Inverse folding.
């Protein structure tokens, strides 16, 4: 019986020693991020604009973006238009970014995702290798994506994941990952030559 009590006491001491570390642990990204956000600028997004921008503010601006990250935002309306580009500068910078999103117009007849994706591919190819590149596309209808999927930008959708919401969806696109996957695979396979 005494042996069980000693074991219990030993594990209790170990647990108490490490519990403050566990309770205060957090995921902290140390590599800076270049975020490319393409938002449907057509009238299709109008009915879900408030919910969509609330999600962007919570999930992207507050949770993903950190100090010194760069963000470029395109409105994919009748023509793709860069509406914001800058570096995240703390709480005030995030507030300004949220305010800019709230003033974005969604009055285009179509959504030019292809044009915005070509711009992203051009910009992301110029970033330094010590930064992460992350492209997020917010679409209100699949019909708006159809020209991108069948046009010259279809190669940009080779690597993506999607999250669907009631009236809109998010696609996380990796326009430059193909080369990185090939380089990583080649480096891995070279170990076995």
């Amino acid at each position: 019986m005494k042996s069980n009590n000693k074991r219990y006491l030993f594990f209790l001491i170990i647990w108490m020693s490490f519990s403050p570390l566990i309770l205060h642990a957090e995921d902290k990204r140390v590599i800076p991020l270049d975020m490319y956000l393409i938002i449907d600028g057509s009238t299709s997004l109008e009915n879900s604009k408030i919910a969509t921008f609330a999600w962007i503010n919570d999930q992207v601006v507050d949770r993903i973006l950190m100090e010194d990250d760069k963000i470029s935002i395109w409105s994919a309306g009748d023509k793709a238009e860069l509406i914001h580009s800058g570096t995240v500068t703390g709480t005030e910078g995030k507030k300004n970014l949220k305010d800019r999103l709230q003033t974005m117009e969604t009055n285009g007849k179509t959504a030019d995702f292809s044009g915005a994706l070509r711009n992203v591919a051009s910009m992301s190819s110029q970033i330094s290798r010590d930064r992460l590149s992350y492209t997020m596309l917010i679409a209100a209808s699949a019909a708006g994506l159809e020209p991108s999927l069948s046009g010259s930008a279809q190669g940009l959708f080779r690597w993506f994941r999607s999250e669907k919401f009631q009236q809109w969806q998010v696609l996380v696109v990796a326009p430059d990952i193909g080369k990185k996957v090939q380089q990583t695979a080649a480096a891995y396979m070279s170990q076995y030559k």
Q: What stands out?
A: Confidence is low (pLDDT under 50) at residues 21-25. The first strand starts at residue 33 and ends at 40.
